[in-house]
Amino acid sequence: MTGAGVPLGDLAAAGVPAVDLAPVIVEQPDPLLFATVSGAHLYGFPSQDSDVDLRGVHLLSVEALVGLREPEETRTRMWDRDGIEMDLVTHDLRKFVRLMLRRNGYVLEQLLSPLVVHTSDAHAELAALAPAVVTSNHAHHYRGFATTQTRLYEKTGELKPLLYAFRVLLTGIHLMRTGDLIAHLPTLAGLVDGPAYLPDLIEAKASAEHGAADVDEARVLADLAGLHAVLDAAQEASALPPEPAASAYDALHEFVVRVRTRR
User: Fold this and answer.
1) Considering just the CA atoms, what is the radius of gyration of the chain in Å?
2) DSSP states of 15-49
3) pLDDT tens string 88-117
4) Which of 76, 86, 91, 121 qualifies as a FRET site for 214, CA 20 to 30 Å off?
């Protein structure tokens, strides 16, 4: 499974600004199993002023989980480094794995992102377990995300949510057909029969993060509706199972316990 159409770890090729991210990892209060770049850089349509979205998994101690204080299962941090806006969102390993088991394509894209800032043996092992949790019902995730982004486009007229809507529909269609997770829109445009104007929209997005969409609204809405129908058909015909196998749950449970207890 893959996350995008760029070489592993090639942040510059994805348009990620040249900023030292190593201190970000060191500053975290608990060990990070991995941190990757998500958002527009992963999806293949960053703008000159796009922020850097970092996503990952931290590992709470056993004491933090069994003590009286409420553990920080999710941490969010936003800051400016060298003039670049950045945000880091991490989940504790147990929460992240539970999200993986809930047909959540978003966390799988983070886990499998080739834009790797920090990794570990546990990251590689978890990524190897990911295919076992991919199901035909992941189509619901991409269908719902596309609907939300389409409504945002209709409300704001901005290009960004329009590209997000196209991206998630093409990701969902390709996943249903092949079992392969690709989040990179320029790559998807060559794999799935999407509108021919997508490269032009991607190019237009490069100049402004929140620019207006100069498009025929009726046409793009009709194309989005058509892709929804394609996703429905792809889900119906998919060879993916409807739910993860019990063996996948057991393997992930064993993984979480083992990684936690060796901390």
Assistant:
1) 19
2) T------HHHHHT-SS-EEEEEEEHHHHHT---TT
3) 999 999 999 999 999 999 999 999 999 999
4) 86
Task: Give first-to-last CA distance, the chain, whole Å.
Answer: 28
What's the one-letter identity of residue 196? A
Dihedral of CA 169/175/180/181: which sign? positive
Q: What is the pLDDT of residues 28-80, one digit of tens each?
A: 889 999 999 999 999 999 988 788 899 999 999 998 888 888 899 999 998 88
Q: Domain 22-134+245-261, CATH 3.30.540.10 — does that match?
A: no
**CA dist list (Å): 246 to 40, 82, 101, 241, 251:** 34, 47, 11, 12, 9
With tokens 């790797």, the residue in question is: 116
Domain boundaries, the chain: 22-134+245-261, 138-237
pTM for the predicted model, two decimal places = 0.91
Tokens matching residue 109: 């894209």
* Contact criterion met (CB below 8 Å) for 241 and 135: yes
Q: Which two tokens stand for residue 57?
A: 């998994």
